[in-house]
Amino acid sequence: MTQNIVEVIVLVVLLGISTPLLGNYMAKIFENKKAPGDRVFGPVERLVYRLTGVSPEREQRWTTYAISLLAFSMVSALVLYGMQRLQAHLPMNPDHLSSVPAPLSFNTAVSFLTNTNWQNYAGEDTMTQFTQMAGLVVQMFVSAAVGITVVVALMRGLTRAKSITLGNFWADLTRIVLRVLMPMAVIATIILIAQGAEQNLHATHMITTVTGQSQGIPGGPVASQEAIKQLGTNGGGYFNANAGHPFESPSGLTNLLLNWLLLSIPFALAWTFGKMARDRKQGLAILGAMGGLFLIGALLVMPLEAHGNVHVTQAHVSQAITSTSPGGNMEGKEVRNGPIISGLFNSSSTSTSTGSINSANDSYTALGGGVILFNMMLGEISPGGTGSGLYGMLIIAILAVFIAGLMVGRTPEYLGKKIQAAEMKLVVIYILLVPFVILTFTAISVVMHSSLASIYNPGPHGLTEVTYAFTSASNNNGSAFAGLSGNTDWYNTTLGLCMLVGRFALMVPVLAIAGSLGRKQRVPASAGTLPTGTPLFSLLLAGIAVIVVGLTYFPVLALGPIVEHLVGKF
Amino acid sequence: MNSASTLDAPEAPQHEPGTGATKRRSATFNSTMVKRALIDAVLKLSPRHMASNPVMFVVEIGSLLTTFYLIRDFGSSTSSENTFALGVVIWLWFTVLFANFAEAVAEGRGKAQADSLRKTRAETVAFVQRGDDVVEVPSSQLQLGDLCVVTPGQLIPGDGDIVEGIATVDESAITGESAPVIRESGGDRSSVTGGTRVLSPRIVVRITSKPGETFLDRMIALVEGASRQKTPNEIALDILLAGLTIVFMFTVVSLQPFSIYSGASQSIIVLVALLVCLIPTTIGALLSAIGIAGMDRLVQRNVLAMSGRAVEAAGDVSTLLLDKTGTITFGNRRAHIFVPMPDVDQHELARAALLSSLADETPEGRSIVELAESHYGQVLPDVQGGELVPFTAQTRMSGLDIDGRSIRKGAADSVRRWVEDQGGSAPVDLAPVVEAISKGGGTPLVVADGPRILGVVHLKDVVKPGIAEKFVEMRKMGIRTVMITGDNPLTAAAIAAEAGVDDFLAEATPEDKMALIKAEQAGGHLVAMTGDGTNDAPALAQADVGVAMNSGTQAAKEAGNMVDLDSNPTKLIDIVEIGKQLLITRGSLTTFSITNDIAKFFAIIPAMFVGVFPALHTLNIMHLSTPHSAILSAVIFNALIIVALIPLALRGVKFRAAGAVSVLRRNLLIYGLGGFIIPFIGIKLIDMIITALGVK
Questions:
Q1: pTM for the complete prediction?
Q2: Closest residue to A463, CB basis, from B261, B478, B618
Q3: Where are the beta strands (DSSP E) in B154-196?
Q4: Distance, in angstroms, between A232 CA and closest chain B CA?
Q5: pLDDT per residue over B359-400, tens digit each?
Q6: Per-residue pLDDT tens over the stretch B26-68
Q7: Chain A residues with CB inside 8 Å of B258's CB?
Q8: Which of A207, B389, B612, B640 has the fewest CB atoms within 10 Å distance of its CB?
Q9: Is-contact A382 A293, C-beta < 8 A?
Q10: Do A421 and B239 touch (CB under 8 A)?
Q11: Are B663 and A547 in contact (CB < 8 Å)?
């Protein structure tokens, strides 16, 4: 128990240190200032620009920025799709895996393209080492970077005045991959390897176990994928068991490292925002709201799991701490992690759109699972995915400023930019789309005969399973609740659609808002301006997010996790 | 309804013309108005009208839908089901009607005012000069440029400028101010308004606006709200409300499949009830009433805003340009103190100053007499046999010759020369005193009795009482005040310091003023100003909020986006406050509307599903008696809260000048937290009442 608490505290301290350091560094990168490592990265960057014909100083309007982003993503998807379809004929296939069937290839391509990493397959027996390394891992880097480019454009829109351009997408993408993701991923990979994570290109070793059974030990470049999987809030594990697999996360230390990695960039970006706004308090207010919501989620899940399942207790099954069991709700959890660390990990991964898990969500307590679901419903803003978390929170900030700004008697403004009908229209689109796809598809799935067959647990728990799947896909989280066989035509198609909507149908309005705000003049702040760099504003942000989301999903939460908790019917 | 008095301007001085700040005889609630509003509320049910308000339009469709299902299923349902359904249907219709009623009441006051203005606009006969003849022309057929002769007692047939003569005009029909005003040809007080009455004598007016487009016509349209368009901010808020409505439609529509899955299919009536409770009906119902009432509050303060956009902009103003004269100071210099020279008694100086000023009919002269009487115990002397020496441009002195004494007062140089001519000399102390007064922004007048200089009268601009406090409030609200004056920088600085303005523009020309507005706007500020002269017109047009004085020229009135009928420039401050109050009211009621939903969920969701999941009773934290009573209570609360908030919407949320932080904290507490708590209490109370009445 004490060890668990120490681990939680160490994580918070690590984040406290990394947030300002990484945040300041990223601000330098985004603003094209002198930064550490210029001598190493500068020449590489210039080489990339020369090879790709990019002129980094040519800034783009929001429309060009968006078109570049969409074009890049479309090409990425096609490449990834083709690679899976042809993997049997491509190199680095020591286990002679066949090519991936078309529907699954499509689903996986969309899933990795959108930083979701919903996996309708088990990595070790479906994807070749080449597909994992050259296909999936590459997407893990660039999809995380694409998310960041959008928020960089939005931050530029908010902080520039009377500017019609928002930067160059290609240059931003290059710099983010090269200077932020690469170095951090390399360091993390080395630590993982040192701790015993697998990193080789071997074929599967067949061995005979002590009981005389035969067992396959798969090889593969696992550590390198693990690092970017967490860092880029991707979540697509090399193995089906994800971060619960000892080859992915061999020790308590790596578990902590993985947990820190997935939170590091999303939190640091809030700091970067303050830096770019030339007002650290603006960043701190965002950070406060993100951190507050994150802690509330984690601090609910951990004790709920540690306390165990009420209905199991009623059935006279002991959930007490013993020398062999960490106690609490241990179903679907690893003994070496226990309920608290497992709860922290899964709460972190659902708060960040990562979706990697070290325990089975399906087996969480009703309310514990409900909180994990709610983490995603918040729209992945606590602190959310790389880039997408901050832009989601900034949209909430614009909404909060609009309502609160009226309450102080001024046309609402954020960082001196007036929030008017044009921006509100885009904000409303942003806010409407995700609930629309989640609720529509979930509603159809629970009444349609064919899709009902995919539910393993009819009743409230089944409703949670389906809601979870669509919430996870639409918010680009990618974690699965399990208990739902998602590899059917209906789920493959609708979940794929949800992933696309949750990614690109939101990015375009965000870029449009960035463009619209960038063109505006900045209104100087005065005593009559709503201050947005205060704890009160953090509270307002968190409050509005919780109330708006809570009201939207209250009925389905009531009929799923809440009823399950109250009734004890699964 | 007049609690807008918290916005009262500093008491207007008595002697200033046209600043009586008389409130328009505001038509408060009376039975005819309520009757008219009730009828309008029903007429407004027309879908064409409802479509402009998406939130209430959804409620209306919901009401129609539930009515249909009520009638269809009436025969096949149990009596308790029918009572419940009937209750929901009735209260849904009430919700729509209450919203329409709110709007109708807000419009009602304007309509009543428009009616009384229309009487003024009655057809009159104009006497138009055509060559040497005077022709009678109906006022409705006047043309631009016609020259009309108006004799005492006649109504002026149309808007125009006086080209000949000077007259007293009774403008009470428009301004509500009974004291007549003086209008004369040439200068900045030449404009007259159609429908006002000439008292004396004859004048000739050149018509400047077409019949049907006169000031009175526009005023009628404005107070009536006929030309009302949604303001930019209202549009943005409408988008948000429509968005919330759509989100909740997703929630409710998807709830039916979830209910079917859970084995508790819901009736359309219950689903519509839930939807109406969730969508932001409170703010949706009151939004247009808030806007109309905001305009109306201005009208009540005798300010006509040409558009709602201008009222909203007033709330955003961050720089106020205020003319010194008439706004910050009374507009003329007044005697402040007598400074005697060494070995001169102050009473002797006071008496001499008084005597020297008897010939001086200027306000400055009168103020010297007043000061001598009030503060130095002098009585008006008998000056028979004396000879009054009036002020001339050559001598720059005025005074009195009596009993062989020559008493003079005037500019320091002139008096010193006059004294020296008589063989006297200026005391050494004179120069420092004169200089000190000048430096402090005052005007020194030297008083001499023959060759002897007695002392100095210190004249200064008197800052209106209470104005400094207003500027402190403005600063709290984040508004910068800039004083505009033609004075030299020294004088201007002194007045600026005394009044507490943030900045000043001295020796200002109209071009300087324009440049200042443009510079402020380039820096992102919204600028408000007042003006009355023709040369103010470009600046009035450039400013975001330009308030023209009704006494000013036609050009100024055309250029500004508001007209102050009282011609009281200090009112600019009130206008800003009314603009802010309008936005605050919208924001607060939006917050209230959203936080209300939490309690409604806790009333309705357990009621819907407690049948299949009895354990959900735990969520019935209000312990509402039955599912039917719970749902009906939420619907009734939702409708009644609209009525309860109509007075607040019309009056506006109480406004206090304070910084954004404290305003936000206060309003979040009242309307955010209040909006969260009140429905829990309200729904519980309604549940107790309807349960007692037998709803099961």
A1: 0.87
A2: B261
A3: 160-164, 166-170, 181-184, 191-192
A4: 31
A5: 777 778 888 888 888 888 888 777 777 888 877 777 788 888
A6: 445 577 888 888 998 999 999 988 888 999 999 999 999 999 9
A7: 442-443, 446, 463, 555-556, 559
A8: A207
A9: yes
A10: yes
A11: no
